[in-house]
Structures are given as structure tokens and as C-alpha cells.
Amino acid sequence: MRLLVVGAAGQVGDSLVRQALGQGHEVTGTYRMRRSAVPGLDAIALDKTDGAAVARLVEMVRPNVIIDTSAMHNVDYCESHSEEAFRVNRDGTAHLAKAAHALGAQFTFISTDFVFDGSGRPPYTELDPVHPQSEYARSKVEGEAAALAPAPDRNLVVRPSVIYSWWGPRRQSASSSGKGVNFGTWLAEEVRQGREVRIIDDLITSPTHAGDLAGAILALLGRSAHGVYHTAGATPIDRYRFSVALVKRVGLDPALVHAVHAAEFAQKAPRPTNSSLDSSRLTATTGYRMLELPAALDRFARERSDDLAS
Ligand SMILES: NC(=O)c1ccc[n+]([C@@H]2O[C@H](COP(=O)([O-])OP(=O)(O)OC[C@H]3O[C@@H](n4cnc5c(N)ncnc54)[C@H](OP(=O)(O)O)[C@@H]3O)[C@@H](O)[C@H]2O)c1
């Protein structure tokens, strides 16, 4: 495949680029504020909200597949900057999907578990109706529609949950996504530096390792899958218990991690109480199984120790 990865220096973009190159695909990446750390990657600057620039770049690269990992996904920032959230997550996505369609290329979009509201009987399947609670989630629901509209029988939407991977301090810098560091890395660094952290214990998600998500996307593309697929970690868990497990797995002190209820934690945007996802459709289509938490944490710990040793 000739792949164009939008947001190549983000945590999912970085994993996708490395795995796709490892599988022998030809890859071009885009960036806004951060350059990719992958040696030899052909990387081009792109703001996906600029429709003319998107059309020019896609025409120049002529990919068979465009994977859009880019987003404005600081959920609380989006709540008070909804115009910006929609401009990036809906309109920028639409520019890319249209440019892909004009070329006959496949388009893949990364959405979120926050499209659900926590009611009903999670873990949610792809058949469950969406009911977004925040401006971020609404912009992603509209992004999903924009992604699928030009070619519903070819384009793909994947929904992960909280994404983490080791992203050491040497790689951290500001990003136009509104997030320079992911939750898992932030947590491990806070605890390593001896700082106490307060983590919500009554919101359940399906924490998703970035490399595992990249593997799932490439497996779906390998089967020409289209439509919506859930691609989230296989273990539904609340954020506090996830944090304790992660901290223990990297050999740090879980006594520094304290549980708080969501109601005590002043967050601007509402979050679903349980947005865990069932990814069995992915397995039925491709044979790919998302990792259970212990195996995903092993991967995180390995990435961290390799990085700290280098
Ligand atoms: N992280 C999570 O917990 C989580 C959970 C569920 C779903 N998701 C979704 O998963 C996807 C990947 O997340 P991630 O954790 O890999 O994010 P990330 O590490 O923050 O990377 C996001 C990328 O988006 C790029 N970007 C932002 N605005 C852009 C624009 N206007 N034009 C072009 N590129 C732009 C950034 O580029 P620069 O860095 O170069 O500025 C960055 O490379 C996103 O769609 C997000 O909504 C994330």
C-alpha cells in the first residue's frame, strides 16, 4: 500500500508509521508542530483545516490509503472552543475524505469511545446508538459521518478508548492536538518524581495501547474492511485501577495514586460513566485480538525500559 499518515508524529501516527514501514508499505507522513522521529520518513507539513492544501498534498503524494490520526482532542479545551474543535475534527476530516475520494483512495478516521453516553449495557458494540455528551464527542461523531460519506463501502472509522504508550520526556513537546503527552506516560512520570496523583475511580473505559491500535488498523486495511469498528483494549477498567496496575507494572509505588470520584474532580466537559467497547467485530473480520490489560502493560513497560536504557 502507498499510505499517507496524517499526524505522523502523534502517538498513534508514530506507531502506524513504524509498523507500516516494517510491513513493507510505502509511507508519507504529515505534521504541524512536531516532526516525526522515524528515521528516513518522508514528512510534509499540513494543516488539515486548509482544504486547498489538503487537495494539493493528496494529489502530489497520490496514496492508495489515507489514515487520519489527527485531531483536536483536549476534551475540556474543546468544550470552550467548540468552533475550533469542529473545524479540525469535522471539517478537516471532510477535506481529507473528499481528497481521498477524488483520487479513488481509501480513507480511515480515528474516532473515540466518547461517542457513547454510558447508558445502556456497555461494553458497546458498533450497533449501539451514539449519544455524545461533550463538544469534543459531538465533533468526532460529525467527523465519523464526514469520513464515511464520500465512500461508505470503502472508508473506515475505528473507535479506540483512552490511548497510551510510553512517550518519554525527550520526545515531549507542544502539539496542535492540545495534548503533548498521553495519560500513561504522564502518570508514570508523576509517580517516578514522587508526586501524589488523584485519579477518578468511577469512570470506566477500555484503555488502548497505541501500538495495538496501529496493528488493528493495519489488519482491517489488509482485509479492505469498511464502516465502523471498535478497536479498544480488551479489559474494561476504571481509571484508578488502571493507574495502579500501570504504576505497579513499571515498578513504581502505587501508594502515591489516590482514588477520587468524578464529582469531586472539576472537569469542564461531561464524560460518559462507562464508555468501554466490545471489539469482537474486529476479531471476527480479521482474526486480530486487542490486548488484555496485562499484555498491553507489558508492552508499555518494555517501551519505557528500552527508552530509559538508551
Ligand atoms: N489519546 C487518547 O486518549 C484518545 C482516546 C480516544 C480517541 N483518540 C483519537 O485518536 C486519534 C489519535 O490520538 P493520539 O493520542 O495519537 O493524538 P496525538 O498524539 O495528540 O496526535 C495527534 C496528531 O494530530 C495532529 N494535528 C492536530 N491538529 C491538526 C491539524 N489541524 N492538521 C493536521 N494535523 C493536526 C498533531 O500534529 P502536531 O503534533 O505535529 O501538531 C498530532 O500529530 C485522535 O483522532 C484522537 O481523537 C485519542
List the helices and strands and how they pair.
Elements: E1 2-6, H1 11-22, E2 26-31, E3 42-45, H2 51-61, E4 65-68, H3 75-80, H4 82-103, E5 106-110, H5 135-148, E6 156-159, E7 163-164, H6 183-192, E8 197-200, E9 204-205, E10 208-209, H7 210-222, E11 227-230, E12 237-238, H8 239-249, E13 257-260, H9 280-286, H10 293-309
Parallel strand pairs: 1-2, 1-4, 2-3, 4-5, 5-6, 6-11, 7-10, 8-13
Antiparallel strand pairs: 9-12
Helix pairs in contact: 1-7, 2-4, 4-5, 8-10
The protein binds NADP nicotinamide-adenine-dinucleotide phosphate (NAP).
NADP nicotinamide-adenine-dinucleotide phosphate binds next to helix 1 and helix 4.
In short:
The protein is of the alpha/beta class. It has helices at 11-22, 51-61, 75-80, 82-103, 135-148, 183-192, 210-222, 239-249, 280-286, 293-309, and strands spanning 2-6, 26-31, 42-45, 65-68, 106-110, 156-159, 163-164, 197-200, 204-205, 208-209, 227-230, 237-238, 257-260. The chain has a domain at 2-166 and 208-234 and 276-291: 3-Layer(aba) Sandwich (Rossmann fold).
Task: Tell me what the structure shows.
This protein is of the alpha/beta class. It has a domain of 208 residues: Rossmann fold. The protein has a seven-stranded parallel beta sheet with strand order 3-2-1-4-5-6-11, sandwiched between helices. α1 links the parallel β1 and β2. α8 packs across α10. The mean pLDDT is 96. The structure holds NADP nicotinamide-adenine-dinucleotide phosphate. NADP nicotinamide-adenine-dinucleotide phosphate binds next to α1 and α4.
